[in-house]
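Predict the 3D structure for this chain.
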Amino acid sequence: MSTSSEYYSSPDTPPDATTVATKAPPHAFEPPPYTPYCEASVSLLSNQRNRPQSHQESVQSPTTPPAIVRPRGYRRLTQYFTPKNLLITGVTLLVLALLSGVFTYLYIRGHLWYSERNVNFVLERHDSFHIHNSNLSYDKHYNTVIMSQFEVPAQRLVTFLLFLDTNEFRVLRTPIPTHGFDDCMRFADSTYCCTTSVHSRNYQTKCWHQSKHHEIGGFPNGTEYDHFVKQSKNGTKESLVSHYHYSKHWQHFYDGSEAIVLENAVNNVILDINENKHYELPEKEKKSYKSAGFYFPMDDIGELNELIKTKDHFKVCEYKLDERLKKYYNKHEKCAKMPIVIDPRLGKTLFCSIPTYNGVLQYGHIDGKLELNLKVNFTSSTTVQVAKTSVNTTFESVVMDCNEENVDLYVLGEKSVYKATVALFD
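Done. Predicted structure below.
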């Protein structure tokens, strides 16, 4: 029996004539696991840090955020102080400063676009007599201060007339021709008005005007007379307007005619006493605007200026009369803003307006005294002339007379009338 040596091939011994090929492994139904080329020949390193990084490992996954290393301490803030960031911040602050300056300038120009000049009142006292608090009026036509008080039970109007040219005064006691009135006031020696209660069935205002005014003079102080009673059948005109109350805004014109502003809770009308006609006024631009005074700048009923009180300043609305339509209309599209800021401490207002200037008086009690704050603005200037004074009185009865060169105030004191005069400079 012969023995034969069989050699099997191996990876190190390629097959030849003396070797026998290795038997093929049995057929497998699943493919063998993938093994990289020469993976078996690569030595396994125990230290992973010394392992060379493959290209796939060097490419970071797009879904993995990069690691952020934050500086510590104050460097967290100083890291943003780069030249680029500092430049952007500086430019932004400069733009904001410029915008703030522009807005501030526009605000000041809109509210304080004027300069003020202080002028002084000259205060003098007229006569001494005992008089209770009363309605005060000034008749420029006769340079007379009129103080009137209505006695409701007797339906009688008591009036004191102070003639400033002679410093004399007269007393009138006028029985009211028609009864049922709640209040009366004399505006001039020739004119007075009475009104019923707003809650009455016949809410109305009636005025009496003596068209044939006689000269007053030669009466000693204190003489009582009433030419309305004596001449009631000769030349006395009556005017009546329903649903309105008389206001203290009135004017005696150069031709002897007179106009009174009537008011109610909704609007105002102008009553021409001589012609017994009344004219409507246009609606205000805004419902929040409040009427603070009226004045006829041309000394006739044809033109009328109204002082409007807004939130913090005054406006002037200029009207012109349309006699055919019996109403006033706006001369301009909007009311003109005045360079006069409202003093919120003083609640009452008087207004005058002539072609050369507008004057606004605010007054009221502060610390027991009647404070008077007058501001005058000439139409040709942005300078506002300001005059302030105070009178020791408990009353708040003041009237104002405006002339080309001065403004006169008449203030009712406890037992006298004070005149405060200020000279104006154009």
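The chain has two domains: 104-133+287-426, 135-280.
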